[in-house]
Amino acid sequence: VQLQASGGGLVQTGGSLRLSCVASRSIFNINSMGWYRQAPGKQRELVATITSAGKTTYADSVKGRFTISKDNAKNTVYLQMNSTKPEDTAVYYCNAEIFAGRLYYWGQGTQVTVSS
Length: 116
Description:
The chain has strands at residues 3-6, 9-12, 17-23, 32-38, 45-51, 56-58, 66-71, 76-81, 90-99, 102-106, 110-115. It is mostly beta strands. The protein is built from no helices and eleven strands.
């Protein structure tokens, strides 16, 4: 599976961005897809995930501000980022967990910079 992430850019504090991740195959029966991020000098961390059934989970730091969603017909997962903060600045990576607990794929990452 190839994952192509896009939508990153520069946004002011409090602004919005929508990231997209297009998969090279159907995502309908992929166990889980998610967004992770990695800031300079920090470890990669989970941002949000969505299961094949549509169940979502979020990191505490983004709850109430970010929304993950998917469009199975377009093989695409989205991350709507609202009320952004400078600490959201990072490279955002799309992830696909094909089967529960195994077989993972990563996209190439898209830079998000939130200016203060």
